[in-house]
């Protein structure tokens, strides 16, 4: 019998887009707490990205930031290889970054649709493709892609038309990618409800809207981050979406929360 200790498994690495702030940051911190090495993607939020990296390092020991414009195809194609060059390997991608700009059927334009489609759907698909290519060089290694969606897809209204179309395209891609990338890559959607306030909503208005659900509350950032971690760790989930919204998708809203 050998007295040698088994070689410890390498620390898992996750690339999280839009991880500098808001929900992406919460997901990053939660995964770092679980021991993941976190690649923090950002576009313009330099100081926020540095803070997220520093906080992740305190939790997991390893983190770094990577700047890229997700509307630029070349930048997206270079992103995961850049992470691999620094970390050695990548095991998962969490597509959290989103362009979220208001338009309606009345003022819709090709330009608005293309802007949202590029960063919200196209970038996520390219990063999924890149993860599969990376895994082909790693023997039996498998990976996971988590796509952040929105309960709006199951509770539609005319507001934020281009944004909603881009998330609908990404939700459809979940199914196609799960089929095409299996068995090496699992693909899972996570769809929050109203989770964080913004400059559009006063705090008291956010609190009121957050309670509009069958459970009396919508999702918290901790709820969403915990669901991402669950999806990453459950090896039997792929090609589906987990709705984390307190049941808000079961209620009919005529307008987007920010305009109610």
Structure explained in plain terms:
Helix 5 links the parallel strand 5 (143-148) and strand 6 (185-192). It is globular, with a radius of gyration of 18 Å. The protein has helices at residues 22-33, 46-60, 73-87, 110-135, 161-181, 203-210, 221-233, and strands at residues 13-16, 37-42, 63-67, 92-95, 143-148, 185-192, 240-244. The chain contains seven helices and seven strands. The protein has 260 residues and is an alpha/beta fold. The chain has one domain (13-259): Rossmann fold (3-Layer(aba) Sandwich), CATH 3.40.50. Strands 3-2-1-4-5-6-7 form a seven-stranded parallel β-sheet, sandwiched between helices. Helix 3 runs parallel beside helix 4.
H-E order: EHEHEHEHEHEHHE
Shape: globular
Q: Overall pLDDT, averaged?
A: 94
Structural class based on helices, strands and sheet pairing: alpha/beta
Give helix % range.
40-55%
Number of helices: 7
> What is the count of structural domains?
1
CATH-defined superfamily: NAD(P)-binding Rossmann-like Domain
Strand content: 5-15%
Question: How many angstroms does the end-to-end distance come to?
Answer: 69 Å
Write the layout of secondary structure elements.
Elements: E1 13-16, H1 22-33, E2 37-42, H2 46-60, E3 63-67, H3 73-87, E4 92-95, H4 110-135, E5 143-148, H5 161-181, E6 185-192, H6 203-210, H7 221-233, E7 240-244
Parallel strand pairs: 1-2, 1-4, 2-3, 4-5, 5-6, 6-7
Helix pairs in contact: 1-2, 1-7, 3-4, 4-5
Task: State the main characteristics.
260 residues; alpha/beta; Rossmann fold; 7-stranded parallel beta sheet; 7 helices; 7 strands; 42% helix
């Amino acid at each position: 019998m050998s007295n040698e200790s088994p070689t410890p498994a390498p620390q898992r690495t996750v690339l999280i887009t839009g991880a500098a702030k808001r929900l992406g940051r919460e997901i990053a911190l939660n995964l770092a707490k679980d021991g993941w090495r976190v690649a923090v993607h950002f576009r313009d939020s330099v100081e926020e990205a540095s803070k997220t990296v520093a906080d992740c390092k305190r939790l997991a020991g390893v983190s770094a930031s990577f700047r890229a414009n997700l509307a630029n195809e070349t930048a997206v194609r270079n992103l995961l290889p850049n992470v691999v060059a620094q970390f050695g390997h990548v095991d998962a991608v969490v597509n959290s970054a989103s362009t979220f700009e208001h338009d309606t059927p009345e003022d819709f334009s090709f330009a608005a649709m293309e802007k949202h489609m590029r960063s919200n759907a196209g970038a996520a698909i390219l990063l999924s493709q890149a993860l599969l290519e990376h895994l082909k060089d790693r023997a039996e290694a498998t990976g996971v892609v988590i796509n952040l969606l929105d309960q709006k897809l199951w509770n539609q209204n005319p507001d934020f038309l281009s944004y909603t179309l881009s998330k609908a395209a990404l939700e459809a891609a979940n199914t196609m990618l799960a089929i095409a990338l299996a068995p090496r890559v699992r693909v899972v959607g996570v769809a929050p409800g109203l989770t964080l306030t913004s400059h559009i909503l006063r705090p008291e208005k956010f609190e009121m809207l957050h309670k509009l659900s069958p459970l009396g509350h919508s999702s918290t950032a901790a709820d969403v981050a915990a669901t991402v971690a669950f999806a990453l760790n459950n090896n039997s989930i792929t090609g589906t979406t987990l709705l984390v919204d307190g049941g808000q998708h079961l209620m009919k809203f005529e307008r987007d929360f920010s305009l109610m």
